[in-house]
Amino acid sequence: MKPIDDRIAWLLESTTPSIVHQTLADPALCAAPAAKIRSAKAKVMRVGAVPAILARQSGGGKWKIDRGYYGPKFYSTHWSMMLLTELGVEGTDRGFRRGAEYMLDATEKEARDSMDRKIPDWSCFWGNLQKYASHAGLSDDPRAGQVAEYLAMAMNDGPCACRINGGKACAWGVIRTLWGFAAVPKKNRTGTIDHAIRKGIRFLLEEGRLEAADYPVRPNTRINPMWFKLSFPLFYHADILFALRVLDDLEALDHRGARSALDWLEGRRGPNGRWKGSSPFRTRTWKEMGAPEETHRWVTLQAMRVLNHAGRKA
Fold first, then answer.
1. How many structural domains compose the chain?
2. How far apart are CA 117 and CA 106, in angstroms?
3. In sequence order, which residues have a C-beta less than 8 Å from that of residue 145 and are 6 or more positions away?
4. Does residue 192 surpass a pLDDT of 80?
5. So what's the pLDDT on residue 120?
6. For residue 34, is pLDDT > 90?
7. φ, ψ of residue 216 in degrees (nearest 5)
8. 290: left (phi > 0), else alpha (psi -120 to 50), else beta?
9. Does the structure show a pLDDT above 50 at 308?
10. Which residues contact 191 (CB under 8 A, 6 or more apart)?
């Protein structure tokens, strides 16, 4: 296999097996043999962050450090499941699936009560839950179906109105909801989900601009500055690159409203052709996520993938 350019070689030198695998597995970046991709995928499950994080899980599916599934940030069950999904954990892994089952059980009553009261909130949380439950192959589970129904209701109300945003529509919530829906196999998407996806894309790309983030905010406040940074990992928040990744998953990068955001992303590329990344929660999550250079690699990989998938040579 011959690397496309020195940036691909740099990505393949990563000490993070997930970066190596995701680089090799994308034909827009590498023409890797199938056997090499399989070998890299197997290493994800044997070496580095994925097995280290799974090793802290209890037999019941939650993480031993838990003070409730949401705390402490960003180590407990919800956040660890998000990280594992981003790292490309095998969805059929017994521990990962057990974690998804635990979360669906732990939130089932809360989701049902919120549905009954018709008070949508915390779309970012529910979208992330939908994402890793689907990654675990549970999108057709009735409990995950209830989460999807809740998210569709939230998208149609606001969209994704949130008390933290003063009851206004929340762009982070919209993006995280779309993130969850993108993981639901197309055969399992109802008409309601498809409608919610269209509404979310319209909100992001027609009613506002990703590169300007001119979305509703509370009075006398402004958009969170993390929106304009390129970060990895992200947890409850979103940035422009993450929004473009979600649109890529939904095959919506050809929307005219995405062009200026893609231009913005191209403009953030350094003279060496790479992107610099930030990790705002580095000291508050598992140390196995790696050193700062690994963050730069993650962001460069994701930016190159988005731009190549959009038909722009990264």
1. 1
2. 19
3. 139
4. yes
5. 67
6. yes
7. -60, 140
8. left
9. yes
10. none
Q: Answer whether 262's CB lies under 8 Å from 306's CB.
A: yes
310 and 255 in contact (C-beta within 8 Å)?
no
* Residue at 314 is within a domain: no
CB count within 10 Å of CB 127 equals 32
CATH code at position 204: 1.50.10
Instruction: Please report whether residue 255 resides in a domain.
Output: yes
Full residue range of the structural domain in which residue 10 is found: 6-309
Q: Which long-range contacts (CB under 8 A, 24 or more apart) does 96-101 make?
A: 96/54, 96/132, 96/135, 96/136, 97/136, 97/137, 97/138, 98/57, 98/60, 98/61, 99/57, 99/61, 99/62, 99/63, 99/132, 99/136, 100/132, 100/133, 100/135, 100/136, 100/138, 101/61, 101/136, 101/138
pLDDT at res. 1: 46
Domain annotation covers residue 74:
yes
Residue 1 falls inside a structural domain: no
